[in-house]
Amino acid sequence: xxxxxxxxxxxxxxxxxxxxxxxxxxxxxxxxxxxxxxxxxxxxxxxxxxxxxxxxxxxxxxxxxxxxxxxxxxxxxxxxxxxxxxxxxxxxxxxxxxxxxxxxxxxxxxxxxxxxxxxxxxxxxxxxxxxxxxxxxxxxxxxxxxxxxxxxxxxxxxxxxxxxxxxxxxxxxxxxxxxxxxxxxxxxxxxxxxxxxxxxxxxxxxxxxxxxxxxxxxxxxxxxxxxxxxxxxxxxxxxxxxxxxxxxxxxxxxxxxxxxxxxxxxxxxxxxxxxxxxxxxxxxxxxxxxxxxxxxxxxxxxxxxxxx
Length: 308
What we know:
308 residues; alpha+beta; Cyclophilin; 6-stranded antiparallel sheet; ATP-binding
């Protein structure tokens, strides 16, 4: 039982929940950029929450299937078709042997997730299938190699019932986004005026967005503290370089950096941000760590997420 790649791009990769415990060696977490879409893709198929999916940045993907199985598409709306007929995302889809699935360019959002019932039968590298190209890890061969046309991805067989994500949980990627910021220990080193402006005035998402980070622009110009020193960079860290425009760091970020950090945004905020088009209004709201921990605990309980 397998999926055969008919069309792909270097931006397409296998991603699961990420690779943890290796940042001290300079190895990135990798993992799904939009964690909520990733979780929903597996929920639709009753897969364990961390099961690897295909992360398809920018659309332009096509594949055929060798056997009957069930799949799901979440994330960006890419005008998906099955044998030339439109199919809806955010629902599970019954596939027959020989079917052709094709994704066009995204109409809303940037990244689509394709999951298969049972998951992909590939060997993990350092405990994860997630592709980290800079580190040469993950993917179908364990070395971060890009997918190729005619690539065969084995699938573990599993039968599941049809499901759909409740409409209230399907995101609208055309709306402005509000990022939940948990202030870090450097937050108070920024001036009171900058701390106030951060939550009072919106920024815009620039065109500089990828799996490493997203640069904001056209908002209040922040003045970072004068002292810079290298320190670990957690997922969702908000750095402020000398030009005063914040950068939100994502899954493929570096492990150390010297720019001042306002704090971190939560994983849901990261996914919401990376799915937005350039020019989207982006705001910040301050939240307490305990409140976000409680929120993520509820999310983890719903999806059955296990701690890494």
